[in-house]
Design a protein that fits this description.
The chain contains eleven helices and twelve strands. With 329 residues, the chain is of the alpha/beta class. The chain folds into two domains: 129 residues, Rossmann fold (3-Layer(aba) Sandwich); 179 residues, NAD(P)-binding Rossmann-like Domain (Rossmann fold, 3-Layer(aba) Sandwich), CATH 3.40.50. The strands form two sheets. It has a seven-stranded parallel beta sheet with strand order 8-7-6-9-10-11-12, sandwiched between helices. Strands 2-1-3-4-5 form a five-stranded parallel beta sheet, sandwiched between helices.
Length: 329
């Protein structure tokens, strides 16, 4: 298609590409793929003008060097841990994400997992399915009101969790070096990381996955938590050291956990985390709702359209690339 830009979609998890086709109509040729690794999408992406990306990666400096015409890498989701941002900036490639499409969904799912831990919902469901109708096996249980929730990270999603948790009568703490006390008009008291671990009945992790947060929930972190505390993770799997989590559960250093994301993902079968009465595992579904899917699917293609039309995109992650990018923006 002479005169049109080439946009390669590395992978996707939805049924229709009507949104992408409509958004890029008249401007670009869309080449949809279903790949997992760069070596699988590079044969098509070598001459692309833009890359739409869901999970395939990692997209390293070496990968970018093989896409000399690429002006933008647009991620459908929030996290950009699979993209080398420094390399992208040096290469003059704009990187965008979609930071707001599923805030409510992940906050709601976090509360759902927290409640499931507190009220042993999944445990009792399995008990009844197995033919038993008994209360004692789930003891002890404690009311949520008056308990303490510790939020690791206090970004958009964590602040929405704080609002919801406060409505249940929970005391909310947070640890985030980039947020000042009272910066946002939402419930929550700022604390140091170690103090938060010691005081929380539930620890919910919400930081981005960066080198500083990878496996930050470690053996040392578990040793500081209450033996009756639960860990909830609706952020990124590698923030929690999986081996350390298994050790903590084996040693009864914590009461249990609820994980929407794991490391590795998907979690192998068999795996030491599977089959435990005090562990809830979901298949990375916290982001999903029909409304969120619509927001997810429209975000990245619109950013690509902006760049290909000579406009500066809305959600640029590597802002230092402005004025020094291949798109001339």
């Amino acid at each position: 298609m002479a005169g049109k830009a080439k946009v390669v979609l590395t992978d996707y998890v939805w049924e229709s590409l009507d949104v992408e086709k409509k958004t890029l109509a008249g401007l670009a040729e869309l080449v949809p793929l279903q790949t997992r690794k760069p070596e699988e999408f590079l044969p098509q992406a070598a001459d692309c003008d833009a890359l739409l990306n869901t999970y395939a990666g990692p997209i390293t400096a070496e990968v970018m060097a093989k896409m000399p015409r690429c002006r933008i890498i647009a991620r459908y989701g929030i996290g950009v841990d699979t993209i080398d941002l420094e390399a992208a900036t040096k290469a003059g490639i704009i990187v965008t994400n979609n930071p707001t499409y599923c805030i409510e969904e992940v906050a709601e799912h976090t509360m759902a997992l927290l409640l499931a831990c507190a009220r042993k919902v999944a445990f009792y469901d399995r008990l009844v399915r197995g033919g038993r109708w008994e209360v004692p096996p789930g003891k002890p249980m404690f009311r949520l009101a008056g308990s303490t929730l510790g939020l690791v990270g206090f970004g958009n999603i964590a602040r929405q969790v704080a609002v919801r948790a406060a409505s249940f009568g929970m005391r909310v703490l947070y640890a985030d070096p980039f947020v000042k006390e009272g910066q946002f008009d939402v419930p929550g008291r700022k604390m140091e990381w170690n103090d938060l671990l010691r005081e929380s009945d539930f620890v919910s992790v919400h930081p981005p996955l960066v080198p500083q947060t990878r496996r930050m929930v470690s053996d040392e972190a578990f040793s500081r938590m209450k033996p009756g505390a639960f860990l909830v993770n609706c952020s990124r799997g590698p923030i929690v050291d999986t081996d350390a989590l298994v050790r903590a559960l084996d040693a009864k250093k914590i009461a249990g956990c609820a994980l929407d994301t794991t490391d590795p993902e998907p979690l192998p079968d068999p795996h030491p985390l599977r089959g435990r009465d005090n562990v809830i595992i979901n298949p990375h579904v916290a982001w999903y709702s029909e409304q969120a899917m619509a927001g997810l699917q429209s975000g990245a293609p619109n950013e690509v359209r902006r760049v290909l039309s000579g406009e500066w995109p809305v959600n640029v992650v590597n802002k230092a690339v402005k004025g020094r990018n291949r798109a001339g923006l």
